[in-house]
Specification:
8-stranded mixed beta sheet; 7-stranded mixed beta sheet; alpha/beta
C-alpha cells in the first residue's frame, strides 16, 4: 500500500469549518471542505493522530479506491478488484455501510449487500471459509459512498463514532453529542480562556457534557485516549508500533496537563435526578478533581464567590419541543439573562439554543452568532460579553405596536375608579400602597403598553375581588386583540392561556407579541416569574382538552364563597375550576339548603362542594372520568364533607335513564362535544341537549329547579322546550365583572316544571 492516503473526515452539519482548521493542525494536507465532511491527504501517522485527537469528527475514513459506476455490476466488480486479503482474514467479521443513490441503486441496503457479496466472494477459501457479518464490533468496517456516478470505497479507521468518548454512559432527556459540545466550546473561545487560567461554569449542566469536554481541552487530554477498540485494531494494514508511539505521547501530555493546578470548572443542575449521573460521567472521564457539580436553580446561579475570577459561562437551555413550549420557557431565559448581568460581570457567555427568539429576551446582546445543527434542528450559538455596553435597555416599537398604542391610549389614560380614602386611629389619612412598579427599561414599548392595561385591570378588579372575597379571577381576556390571551389570578399564581393566532397572522409577529406580554406579566401583577404558568389554547376536538399537558401532580388550594377548592395549574389545559361559573356556584350554594342536589358532568364537583356548604340534604355528582371524580373526592375532604355526597362514575345519559331518584336542585354543564371511549356513541350538545334535558327534568322533584349552561358559542336552545317547561335565560345574571368583556363565555338557563 501507499505511504500516503486520501482521508474523509465526517462530522455533524455545521462543523465543517472548525473541523478543517483542527484537521490541518493535526497534519492533514490538501484539505478541502464538503457538506458534513472534510477531505485531504495524509500518511498513516496523521490518520492515527486524527483518530486520537479530533474533538469534532465522527469518523476517519481511509479511501481504498475510487471508481466510476453505472450500475450494480460495476459496483460489484469495482469492489471485487480490491486485494481484500491485504485487509482482513478470510474468517473475519465485516460490516458494510452504504450511502448515496443513483446508477441503478436506490436502496442503500441493496447497495451494502452488493459490496458485502464482492468482499465475501473475493475472500472465500476452497474449504468454504468466508467473512461473516457483525454490525456491532466487526474486524473491518467498510463504507461506500456513491456520489454522482462515482463510488468512493473506504475503510473506517474509527470504528464506533468518535463522538462516543466512553465516559457518558448516562445521559439526560436532551443529550448534546460530545463533538458538538466540543465545537461549541471551541467557537466560544474556551481554549483561549483556559490558557489564560479562566473558569468554566454551566448553570444548566445536565449530565456534564460541556464540563467534561471543557476540562479535556484545558488539560490537553486527547478526547479518545481511553478508547480500547478501533476500526483499525484488527485491520491487517494496522501499524501497532506507530500507534503505540502516538498513544504514549498523548498519555504523557494528559499526565502533564492533569498535574497542573486544575482550573475552576463547575456545573449546576436543577433536576436532582441528573446530579449523580453527571458525577458518574465525570468520574469515568477521570476528571473528578477538576469538575464539581451541584444542584441549583438558574434563578440563584452564581459562577463562583471569588469576584476576581473571570471565565466562560456556557449552557444549552431547553428549546421547547411542543407547540407553545417556547412561551413557557421565556422566564427561564430571562432569569439566565438576569443572573449574567448580576453575577457574571466581566465574564464571557455562550448560549446554545434552538430558539434564538428566546435568546433575544435575555436582556443582553450577543456580539457574535454562529449557526449550528443539533441533529436536524437548526440552532444558534450566541456569544456574549457580559458588560453594561451589551445590556438591552429598551426596544423599538413595531408599526403594529404604535397603531395599537394609539388605539388603546384613551382607555389606558382614563382615570381608574377612585379609591375610598382610609384613616388611621389618629384620624390621619392612610397613604395607599403604591401599585406594582413595572421595570420599564426591561420592556419593549409594546410590552409596556400591555403592562399598563394589566395594571389598570388589576386596580379595577382587585377592589371588587377583595370586597366579594374572590380569590381567583380573570384579570385579562384578549382586551387588546394583538395580545390574544386570557390571564387568570389564582391567589398568588398566574395562569396564562395563549390563544393560537389565526393562520393569517405572521407567526414571528405573533410570537414577538406573546413574548412582550409574558415579559410584562410578572412585573405588572407583581408576581414572581416562577409562579406564572403558560399554556396554549387551540380549537379542541374529542377528548384533547382533557389530555395531560404535564405530570407534576401539584395542587394549589384556593377559596371561593367560604369553600376551599384544589386547582392544578400545570397538568391539564383546564385547572379544575371554571372561573366563569363562579356566580352559578354561589347561586347554588344559596339555594341548596335542605335540598337534594344533582350535578351532571360534574368535572371536579366544585358546584357540589358549594351545595354541601350551603346545607344541601345530599349531593350526587356524575362524571365519566375517574381522575376528576378522585379530584372531586379530595375537594369534599378538604372541606370536611364526605358521608352524604355521592360520586358516580358513568355516562350521564345512561345514568339518567337508569336512575329513579328525585332531586330538588339540578345543575348541568355539559361539554360541547365528547367521544370518550367509555361511552357509547358521541355526545353533541346542540344535537343532544333536548334529550338530555328531558331525562334530567324527569328526575326533578315537584317545585325543583334545573340550571343548564354551556359554552358553545353557536348554541341555540330548542324552542319546543318552552312548550313543556318554564324556561328563563339568566346568562347576564351569571357573569361577574371579570368576565364582563367576554359575555359570550357561557350561556345559562333556569328551567322549572310548568
Amino acid at each position: 500500500m501507499s505511504d500516503r492516503f486520501e482521508l474523509f473526515l465526517t462530522c455533524p452539519k455545521g462543523l465543517e469549518g472548525l473541523l478543517i482548521e483542527e484537521a490541518v493542525g493535526l497534519g492533514l494536507e490538501e484539505a478541502r471542505e464538503h457538506t458534513s465532511a472534510v477531505r485531504g491527504m495524509a500518511d498513516m501517522e496523521t490518520a492515527y493522530r486524527l483518530c486520537l485527537w479530533s474533538r469534532l469528527a465522527n469518523r476517519v475514513l481511509l479511501v481504498l479506491k475510487r471508481f466510476p459506476m453505472k450500475d450494480a455490476e460495476d459496483l460489484y466488480h469495482g469492489v471485487l478488484d480490491i486485494e481484500w486479503a491485504d485487509h482482513m482474514v478470510p474468517d473475519g467479521t465485516l460490516a458494510v455501510e452504504f450511502s448515496g443513490h443513483g446508477s441503478g441503486i436506490d436502496n442503500t441496503h441493496f447497495g451494502a449487500l452488493k459490496v458485502k457479496d464482492a468482499i465475501v466472494d473475493k475472500l472465500r477459501t476452497p474449504t468454504g471459509e468466508r467473512p461473516s457479518i457483525d454490525k456491532i464490533n466487526p474486524d473491518l468496517r467498510i463504507h461506500l459512498r456513491l456520489d454522482r456516478g462515482e463510488a468512493i470505497l473506504s475503510l473506517d479507521l474509527s470504528g464506533h463514532s468518535l463522538h462516543q468518548r466512553g465516559y457518558r454512559l448516562q445521559q439526560g432527556a436532551a443529550p448534546l453529542k460530545e463533538n458538538l459540545a466540543a465545537a461549541i466550546l471551541i467557537r466560544s473561545g474556551w481554549p483561549r480562556i483556559a490558557a489564560e487560567g479562566g473558569a468554566l461554569s454551566d448553570p444548566m449542566c445536565g449530565v456534564g457534557t460541556f464540563l467534561v469536554e471543557g476540562a479535556m481541552i484545558a488539560a490537553d487530554m486527547a478526547p479518545n485516549l481511553n478508547r480500547e477498540l478501533w476500526g483499525f485494531t484488527t485491520w491487517l494494514g494496522h501499524v501497532p508500533a506507530l500507534w503505540k508511539k502516538l498513544h504514549a505521547e498523548a498519555t504523557e501530555r494528559a499526565a502533564i496537563g492533569m498535574n497542573k493546578p486544575p482550573l475552576w470548572i463547575r456545573g449546576y443542575e436543577a433536576d436532582p435526578r441528573l446530579i449523580q449521573p453527571a458525577r458518574n460521567n465525570i468520574e469515568r472521564a477521570g476528571l473528578s478533581h477538576w469538575i464539581k457539580v451541584y444542584q441549583g436553580e438558574v434563578g440563584t446561579f452564581e459562577p463562583r464567590p471569588d469576584q476576581n475570577q473571570k471565565g466562560l459561562v456556557i449552557c444549552n437551555p431547553p428549546y421547547g419541543e411542543r407547540l407553545g413550549d417556547e412561551a413557557s420557557l421565556l422566564y427561564l431565559y430571562q432569569n439566565l439573562g438576569e443572573r449574567l448581568r448580576q453575577a457574571c460581570m466581566g465574564w464571557e457567555a455562550a448560549v446554545f439554543t434552538g430558539a434564538p427568539d428566546l435568546g433575544k429576551r435575555m436582556g443582553i446582546r450577543s456580539h457574535k452568532q454562529y449557526s449550528f445543527w443539533n441533529g436536524a434542528l437548526p440552532c444558534k450559538l450566541l456569544l456574549i460579553k457580559v458588560n453594561p455596553d451589551q445590556f438591552v435597555t429598551g426596544e423599538r416599537r413595531t408599526p403594529e405596536q404604535r397603531q395599537a398604542e394609539r388605539e388603546q391610549a384613551a382607555y389606558d389614560q382614563a382615570p381608574a375608579e377612585p379609591q375610598e380614602r382610609q384613616y388611621n386611629k389618629n384620624g390621619n389619612p392612610i397613604k395607599p400602597a403604591p401599585a406594582p412598579v413595572v421595570e420599564q427599561a426591561r420592556l419593549s414599548e409594546g410590552g409596556q403598553m400591555f403592562a399598563n392595561r394589566l395594571q389598570k385591570n388589576l386596580k379595577l378588579l382587585g377592589k371588587w375581588a377583595k370586597r366579594e372575597g374572590v380569590d381567583c379571577y380573570r384579570v385579562y381576556d384578549a382586551d387588546m386583540p394583538e395580545y390574544s390571551m386570557a390571564i387568570d389570578l389564582y391567589h398568588d399564581w398566574v395562569h396564562v392561556q395563549e390563544y393560537a393566532a389565526p393562520k393569517s397572522i405572521d407567526p414571528e409577529k405573533a410570537s414577538a407579541r406573546m413574548f412582550d406580554a409574558l415579559a410584562a406579566i410578572p412585573q405588572a401583577l407583581n408576581i414572581d416569574k416562577s409562579r406564572v404558568v403558560v399554556k396554549r389554547r387551540e380549537r379542541q376536538s374529542g377528548t384533547k382538552q382533557y389530555e395531560r399537558q404535564s405530570a407534576q401532580g401539584k395542587f394549589t388550594e384556593v377559596s371561593e364563597g367560604g369553600v376551599k377548592l384544589l386547582v392544578n395549574l400545570t397538568d391539564y389545559l383546564d385547572t379544575g375550576l371554571f372561573l366563569d361559573h363562579r356566580p352559578m356556584r354561589l347561586r347554588i350554594q344559596k339555594e341548596a339548603a335542605g335540598k337534594r342536589f344533582l350535578n351532571l358532568y360534574c368535572y371536579t364537583a366544585t358546584a357540589s362542594v358549594h351545595a354541601a356548604k350551603g346545607g344541601a340534604r345530599s349531593t350526587t355528582s356524575v362524571d365519566l372520568s375517574k381522575t376528576y371524580l378522585d379530584w372531586a373526592r379530595r375537594n369534599f375532604s378538604l372541606n370536611g364533607f364526605s358521608d352524604k355526597n355521592r360520586l358516580e362514575q358513568g355516562d350521564v345519559m345512561a345514568w339518567l335513564e337508569a336512575s329513579r331518584d328525585e332531586f330538588d336542585l339540578i345543575f348541568i354543564d355539559p361539554p360541547t362535544f365528547s367521544n370518550s371511549k367509555r361511552m357509547e356513541g358521541i355526545f353533541d350538545v346542540q344535537r343532544d341537549h333536548v334529550q338530555l334535558l328531558d331525562l334530567a327534568m324527569a328526575r326533578l322533584a315537584p317545585g325543583g329547579v334545573l340550571y343548564f349552561s354551556n359554552n358553545f358559542r353557536k348554541f341555540v336552545l330548542e324552542d319546543n322546550l318552552s312548550e313543556r317547561y318554564a324556561v328563563e335565560e339568566i346568562s347576564d345574571k351569571t357573569i361577574d365583572p371579570d368576565f364582563a368583556r367576554n359575555a359570550k363565555i357561557h350561556r345559562a338557563w333556569k328551567i322549572t316544571a310548568r
